[in-house]
Amino acid sequence: MKLSKNHYVIDENQPHIIPADHPDRQILRQLVNVCPAGLYQLNPDGSLSFDYHGCLECGSCRLLCDEKTLARWRYPAAGYGVTFRFG
Ligand code: SF4
């Protein structure tokens, strides 16, 4: 799949995924590996960078962890999110 062909409508006021303040480091490493869009990044100091703007809404990160790691996970509100474009 070519992600650049997708169309995103971003809700800048309400992120649909919010990492928790002090997530487990081991699970963070798994998040970095599981996200097909590469939205989770571990910084050299061990902190997490996350950008929900390119989310594919696959749910992999939600399945991997609970609210101790992701304080919020929900689908974007109606009219927002990803539209997949193939071909
Ligand atoms: S739902 Fe999928 S694409 Fe979106 S942040 Fe989680 S793993 Fe990445």
Automatic annotation (TrEMBL):
This protein's record includes keyword Metal-binding = yes
- Main function: Could be a 3Fe-4S cluster-containing protein.
Query: What PANTHER family does the record point to?
Result: FERREDOXIN-LIKE (PTHR43082), FERREDOXIN-LIKE PROTEIN FIXX-RELATED (PTHR43082:SF1)
Which UniProt keywords are listed? Electron transport, Iron, Iron-sulfur, Metal-binding, Transport
GO terms, molecular function: iron ion binding; iron-sulfur cluster binding
Phylogenetic placement of the source organism:
Bacteria, Pseudomonadati, Pseudomonadota, Gammaproteobacteria, Enterobacterales
* Family membership noted in the UniProt record: Belongs to the bacterial-type ferredoxin family. FixX subfamily.
Organism, as annotated: Limnobaculum zhutongyuii
Q: What is this protein called?
A: Ferredoxin-like protein
